[in-house]
Amino acid sequence: MEAAIAKHIDPSNLLIERAVAEWDSDEKTCFLGDEANSSFNMTVGLDPSTDKLLLWFQLVVSVKRHRAATHSRPRSLFMLLQADMFDHDHDPCFSLNHVSEVPAPKATLEAISRASLGGDNTRTFQLHLRLKEHSQVVMPKSDPPLIPATEKSRRLLRSFRSLSEATSFSVYLPLGADRVQSLQEVCNSLLSKQLVSHDIDFRSFYTGGAERDVWSNFDIFLDSASEHNAPKAGPLAATTSSPPQGPSFERKSAKAVEAPAEEDEDALAEPAPPPQYEDDDASTVKQPKPSLPPDPASPLIYRPELDLDGETTEEDEEPPTEQTPASPHSPPRKKRKADNDSPAASPAVPPLPPHAAAVPPPPPPPPPPEEEGEEEEEGEEEAEAETEASPLPPYPSSSSSRPRPGNKPRVRFTNPTTTPSIQQPNRTISSHLNTTPSSLRTALARFLRWLAAVDVDLQDKYDGLLWDMGDAAAAGDGVRFYRLQARCKAEVLVGYRRREPVAGGTGGEGEE
Q: Of the four listed, 399, 409, 415, 430, which is most buried by Cβ atoms within 10 Å?
């Protein structure tokens, strides 16, 4: 940068000072550089041999290549002002006055005090500029856009953009007596229209190229994760600030209709792997509902302790055999309820075996009907005791295990003496791992450290894949993130080759 400027003017003739800018945006006074450690500077110079005016404002911010990066780097932006940009129809278009000579409001004095430009305000001057058109900002070219490293850098970029769009603003500078005289000469020469524009190419300051007023090179707005969560506060704010109205319900219904459509598009774009042990697992399918406790006196209840294998049992045949000669409203169930109400009539009518009227049981023979009747009369607790005391029936042979026509296959009962351990089904990646954007960014940072520990050049080799992982982490897409991570790790590990075995010893694991 210094070498490019030295071709046009002696660097000793340049005036470089920290500054505080003040302008109006949307009927609100804005400030830039009103912090103690601000990097907002003004550079002004005049080449007496060519009458070329050099005037620009420089802002330095910290940016990152992607959100998961752990290191940031400084980048400079330049707001250029040419001699032909000043509006000479409004007098004065370039004026220098002491801060005590202008009516500075209290907010302006507080901003100057926060900036700590140099002791008290006895050496602070105001430089007012009025332009015919807004200035241009030269910035580095970047695709994808650079990410501000901190929220402060994001705020500075927004303020710098707003300042470049203003045509009238003031700058406050700490100046000594000699610098005040040099700057006053620049003001006089500019007002007399004796100065010409410089021809410095600021695009040569950046190795990757430069552009003018292309603010899409910086991500100065909210990230995708914040924008995705932002609409959630809308309905809450509407319900707390004003009573519900008709249009508000229509918007909610529209969102409810659009939500399944978005899910369908995501499903078509990238189908998830098929779930494992989801429909056939006894721990997930055969558990009783806590809101409906089983009735021990009813022979039609479902007993999980008798069906731990998750298959069809003899109890499944009871509803069709009993309800076939009965009405659709199940009178036998109502009759049992009436019998339960009268204790004298309850032991008089013993229930019939559920499979006696269906088909004869195949070998091995089932338990005697008397035991089943006793189980139905005594309840669920006695049924468990009967099952624990009775030995398991022998496993049927290959000839007897064949299903007969019109019959359901029988299964053996398990011993429920101990509570079976519920086997957790295998889920997809995103169901048992934390897939929030913050956790995925942390996982990406750990993966980058591992990649750097293997070889620092691997980050450049897999730059595109790491960008995709960063996008998936920002969107909270855990499935896509861990797929890309596994793919990258596999490619790195495949790049290793095993060592040749050494005579008298064993070879190592491998080297790159």
A: 430
From first CA to last CA, the distance across the chain in angstroms is 41
* Contacts with 231 (C-beta within 8 Å, 6 or more apart), sequence order: 255
Residues 160, 139 contacting (CB under 8 angstroms)? no
Among positive and negative, which fits the CA dihedral 155, 160, 161, 162? Answer: positive
Residue with tokens 């850098």: 153
Tell me how far apart the alpha carbons of residues 50 and 269 are, in angstroms, rounded to a whole number: 63
User: What is the SS3 string spanning 221-260?
Assistant: CCCHHHHHHHHHHHHHHHHHHCCCCHHHHHHHHHHHHHHH
- What φ, ψ does residue 94 adopt, rounded to 5°? -155, 100
Q: Which amino acid is at 210?
A: A
Q: Return the structure tokens found at 313.
A: 């049992």
Lowest mean pLDDT among 41-55, 243-257, 334-348: 243-257
- Whole-angstrom Cα distance, residue 65 to residue 145? 8
Quickly state the pLDDT bin for 351 (edges 50, 70, 90). Answer: low
Q: Is the pLDDT of residue 431 over 80?
A: no
Query: How long, in residues, is the chain?
Result: 512
pTM for this entry: 0.45
Residue 281 CA to residue 119 CA, distance in Å, equals 76
Determine contact, residues 17/8, Cβ cutoff 8 Å. no
CA pair distance 43, 160, nearest whole angstrom: 16
Residue written as tokens 């009405």? 327
Q: What are phi and psi of 319, to 5 degrees?
A: -60, -45
Distance between CA atoms of 194 and 512, rounded to whole angstroms? 67
Listed range (111-115, 228-232, 352-356) with the worst mean pLDDT: 228-232
The encoded tokens of residue 484 equal 């890309």
- Domain positions in the chain are 2-221, 280-319+358-418, 433-494
Give me Rg for the CA atoms of the chain.
Answer: 41
The candidate with the shortest Cα–Cα distance to 367, out of 379, 355, 359, is 355
CB atoms within 10 A of CB 320: 10
The segment with the largest mean pLDDT, out of 119-128, 176-185, 265-274, is 176-185
What local confidence, expressed as pLDDT, does residue 160 receive?
A: 94
**What gap in Å lies between CA 247 and CA 377, rounded to an integer?**
60
- Residues 447, 452, 454, 459, CA torsion sign: positive
Is the Cβ–Cβ distance between 47 and 9 less than 8 Å? yes
Instruction: Give the type of residue at 40.
Output: F
Cα–Cα distance, 97 to 172 (Å, whole number): 10
What are the backbone dihedrals phi and psi of residue 107, each rounded to the nearest 5 degrees, phi first?
-65, -35
Q: Which of 81-85, 292-296, 403-407 is modeled with the greatest confidence?
A: 81-85
pLDDT in tens, 243-274: 444 443 344 444 443 444 444 444 444 444 44
Q: How far is CA 231 from CA 145, 235, 248, in A?
A: 24, 8, 14
